[in-house]
């Protein structure tokens, strides 16, 4: 994949690569199970080129996996990074290039044979190429409409409505519970490039500086009259 490719071309290339790899895996499965008798028939059935399928059955890896032994990190370490990227993105706080490189550098210290090799931005781009299910996109700061309603008047109105509802329906305060889990980012939010799963690109992700502190809070509380008044 040439570095001169536009982002649209790169996205198209990665999408086609994923689709072809998936089709090749299905073709190999059908051949190994005996569902399809010939390589050519499996290639036609799954719409994949005959030669790559034949090479894969001979144990020859795909191009982006062929030089694993020369990579700075092991396959298991790269898989761990991929899982971390997917997990943080699913939680709404994806990591950026700097955080990816920091984690990769920590792994690289464990690989004594690669001590002189450096984790660079070029390595990070190569990592995304080797894992086409991931991509970089711009995060978004808090929507203006959400930020606008987060004020004292709105919060006060909510608790006044809660109080009147409880009084109207004769709900005692001892029957009010709150269980919640949320995340907080301390620092100034800004839009920047983050790493996410390709299939979830359209989701809105939080923007934050790499130096900001992130805190996950779990709350389990029992309301009393004194707390709500």
Automatic annotation (TrEMBL):
One of its GO terms (molecular function) is DNA binding. Keywords: DNA-binding, Nucleus. It holds the Pfam family HTH_psq. The keyword Acetylation does not apply. Residues 65-137 form the HTH CENPB-type domain. This is HTH CENPB-type domain-containing protein. It comes from Ustilago trichophora.
């Amino acid at each position: 994949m040439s570095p001169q490719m536009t982002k649209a071309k790169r996205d198209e290339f990665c999408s086609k690569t994923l689709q072809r790899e998936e089709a090749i895996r299905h073709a190999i499965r059908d051949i190994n199970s005996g569902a399809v008798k010939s390589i050519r028939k499996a290639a036609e059935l799954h719409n994949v080129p005959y030669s790559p399928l034949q090479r894969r059955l001979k144990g020859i890896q795909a191009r982006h996996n062929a030089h694993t032994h020369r990579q700075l990190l092991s396959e298991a370490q790269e898989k761990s990074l991929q899982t971390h990227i997917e997990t943080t993105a699913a939680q709404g706080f994806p990591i950026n290039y700097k955080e990816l490189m920091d984690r990769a550098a920590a792994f690289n210290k464990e690989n004594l044979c690669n001590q002189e090799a450096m984790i660079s931005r070029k390595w990070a781009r190569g990592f995304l190429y080797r894992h086409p299910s991931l991509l970089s996109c711009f995060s978004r700061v808090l929507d203006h409409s959400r930020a606008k309603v987060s004020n004292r008047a709105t919060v006060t109105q909510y608790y006044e409505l809660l109080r009147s509802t409880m009084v109207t329906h004769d709900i005692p305060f001892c029957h009010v519970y709150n269980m919640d889990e949320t995340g907080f980012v301390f620092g100034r939010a800004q839009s920047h490039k983050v790493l996410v799963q390709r299939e979830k690109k359209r989701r809105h992700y939080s923007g934050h500086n790499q130096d900001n502190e992130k805190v996950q809070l779990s709350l389990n509380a029992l309301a009393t009259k004194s707390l709500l008044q």
